[in-house]
User: Which sequence fits this backbone?
């Protein structure tokens, strides 16, 4: 039966005429996924497998491509391969994947708060409430949708490369790569801890130590919810804290994560008994009291009081030191003003 790639697949995934590889006549549509076979030519030889896949499937997110590789749905010469494999002339790369555009890579004209942009990177301010990447409940309206629209106005095929994220209800600064080279260098900067991140946080309780270091490992527990938690078997995690102000049972502080674990600041502050205001996941009891207070004052705050206020790193192309700042969100000032006016009591 296999003879040519069905027209439907060619419409879903147009093959560039300039590409030296050929899409073999082995494509079977099975529900949502398809099977593609690429024969590697001289133009592709030497490329990393993950970079090749990103060019071959520009409409599919890097996350899904990495997952397909890890799951064994990407094979080289019939064998599962690693993302960093260097392709050779004559290699046959088989990919089983849904070729339709990842929802996050569908451009949507959503306004962006751009702090800095050049030909390699983009630094943006994400508002609280916006997802960086879609999930099962929200498949559009994300930061990636907005970035795809912005970059589509500049150059065909330019796609945003994320190297870090912010939780949905956290606001602040994010750096985004505009080229594969910038993405690779920024990812290395994060691994080597050459990126300085400073967060502003408002937490429950009065933290009277001026400065402290929270060194507690964080891991994933599939048997309990929330799954991410402080646990002895977890990975090293370190957060440095500096107290800025204490206001009637709340503490305004600066948090500097020295590692990049999921939910690290939220988990660490909750672990020492000072959950972030607005964080129902890691401070459910404090959040219930916060909800009751919001009802009393007639104002609802739909966010975590955590803000990525500062971001510093070497430019991925020039090496120039860059530092960006984002001012404290208006919600911080408004909540503290209401808090003082109501004598600071939940």
Assistant:
């Amino acid at each position: 039966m296999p003879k040519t790639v069905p027209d439907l697949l060619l419409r879903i995934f147009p093959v560039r005429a300039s590409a030296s590889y050929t899409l073999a006549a082995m494509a079977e549509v099975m529900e949502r996924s398809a099977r593609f076979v690429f024969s590697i030519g001289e133009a592709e030889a030497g490329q990393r497998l993950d970079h090749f896949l990103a060019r071959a499937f520009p409409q599919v997110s890097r996350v899904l491509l990495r997952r397909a590789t890890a799951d064994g749905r990407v094979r080289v010469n019939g064998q599962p391969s690693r993302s960093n494999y260097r392709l050779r002339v004559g290699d046959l790369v088989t990919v089983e994947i849904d070729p339709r555009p990842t929802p996050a890579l569908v451009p949507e004209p959503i306004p962006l708060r751009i702090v800095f942009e050049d030909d390699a990177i983009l630094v943006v301010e994400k508002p609280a409430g916006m997802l960086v990447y879609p999930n099962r409940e929200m498949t559009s309206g994300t930061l990636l949708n907005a970035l795809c629209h912005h970059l589509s106005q500049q150059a065909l095929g330019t796609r945003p490369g994320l190297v870090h994220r912010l939780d949905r209800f956290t606001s602040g600064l994010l750096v985004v790569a505009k080229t594969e080279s910038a993405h690779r260098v920024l990812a290395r900067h994060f691994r080597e801890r050459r990126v300085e991140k400073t967060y502003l946080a408002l937490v429950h309780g009065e933290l009277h130590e001026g400065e402290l270091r929270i060194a507690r490992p964080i891991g994933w527990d599939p048997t309990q919810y929330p799954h991410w938690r402080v646990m002895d078997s977890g990975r090293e995690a370190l957060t440095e804290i500096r107290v800025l102000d204490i206001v009637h049972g709340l503490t305004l502080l600066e948090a500097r994560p020295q590692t990049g674990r999921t939910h690290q600041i939220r988990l660490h502050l909750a672990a020492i008994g000072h959950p972030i205001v607005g964080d129902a996941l890691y401070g459910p009891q404090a959040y219930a009291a916060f909800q009751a207070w919001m009802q009393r004052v007639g104002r609802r705050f739909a966010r975590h009081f955590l803000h990525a206020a500062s971001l510093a790193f070497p430019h991925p192309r020039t090496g120039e030191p860059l530092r960006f700042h984002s001012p404290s969100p208006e919600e911080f000032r408004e909540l503290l003003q209401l808090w003082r006016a109501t004598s600071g009591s939940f």
About this structure: Residues 132 and 166 are 7 Å apart (CA to CA).
